[in-house]
Amino acid sequence: MLALQRLLSKRFGDIPVDITCLISNAPVEVIERWFDLAIDAQQLSDIFKDDL
Description:
mainly alpha, 4 helices, 0% strand
C-alpha cells in the first residue's frame, strides 16, 4: 500500500483523498494491479478508471 502511494506521489504529485481512501481499503491483489498500471500510466485516471 505505501509503495503504491509513494509511486503515485512521485509520478503525479498530491494524491486526492478519495484515491488514498480507496487504496487503504483495497485488497492486496488490487493494490498490486494498480501498482503495475501506475508504472506506465499518463495520469491517475488511467489507473483507477474502473474502480472509482
